[in-house]
Amino acid sequence: MRLSNRLLPLLTVLTVVLSQHGVPSFLLRKSARDTLLASVKLKHDVFRFLMARPEMWPILTGGTKLTTNSDSKIWSELGLSPTEMIEELGFPAETHQVTTEDGYVLTMHRIPHGSNLNGTAGGVPVLIQHGLLSSSADWLSVGEKSIAFMLADAGYDVWLGNIRGNTYSREHTDPDISEESYWNYSFDHHGKHDVPTMTNYILETTGYSKLFYIGHSQGTLMFWVSMDHHGQEFADKFYGMFALAPVAQLIHMKSPMKLLYPFVEEIEDTMTSNGIYSFLASKDDLSGVCGQPEAAALCKYGIFLVCGWNEEQFDEDAFDYIIENVPSGTSLRNMVHLSQSFGRPGLHKYDFGTLGNLEEYGQEEPPPYDLSKVTVPVYFIYSENDWLTDVLDVQWLAGQLPNIVKETYIPGLFTHLDFIWAKDLDLLLNNEIIADMNLALGNAA
Q: Does Cytoplasm count among this protein's keywords (predicted)?
């Protein structure tokens, strides 16, 4: 079987995950999935072999010459926690934990006010929610140009969420919960439990009756799901929702991630049969490789390949920090649920198969989420060069939501991850978000 080189980084991720969990290749089931992996022969040791031989990289990158400069850094040192990073830039930082109804302990990092407000607080709260395989740390990536710091300096009370299963929300109230039970969730649970739990805690803590929500990628998806589960009473708790790279259906995505769709069930069966229920739950899964200077350029290429190519806006100063904090982990079931959107129009609940759906939903097909329940004022911000969230899928979603007050289309090379990592994030995006928030508050007064 001959495969496109575009698939290599994704197969690398899979083989690294398997090898990190100690699953020897001879235990893997014989199937089309095994043929797929064997055809590229890219187990972890082979990947390290390639990393040590830069002269071979053009074979993988199609002749593209890549460079990276990790000598210059935004931060004084690596290994700092989000609160330490916040404090290093002169902002106040707090850590809050809240428990969901089903026992997951979620951590939020708070910036209660700006660096220039001399200890005063009381601004309108903003919940900022990360995307897939990410965490609160992502919103700090580019230093003072990050939306979290800019909002704090603009007088807002900033709360950085962390959903269940990521680096900072890995605890559970049941100390004896099994790996299989702990990781048995998808973005449906993020929307049903995580988003409302964090929202209600913020409102109770601050005394406000409403807040703003900013979501990126899966952070938008879980918001739509939360509205389906909780309806108008929950929608009334938001001044507005800013959807960065909004996600729902994904049938037009350009990313080579879509090429894995036919193999999803077999990949899931193989991993679960070997006791693996999480996906990239350890930062060491990739940072051990990508943190090597000789591998940095190829890892950067892998990011571009999955999410879109924009080397001009890639902040080299933040690269070491990015690699140190990504990926932050999710469940295998969540990855499967997301992948189900690659081949089915619309946004649907988890597909358990015909018999499972009959038992769970009383029908053979998973029901769609009711997007008409998203009555919150929504600000859409999307880009042309986003390989994950295609313009056609965004436009479909825009047609389903009843209260879109503004659509901002970013032309050119702006990509899926530029929404959190772009070098000129303040000028290209964040100033407009803050202006729109201020205007919304003025109109609400």
A: no
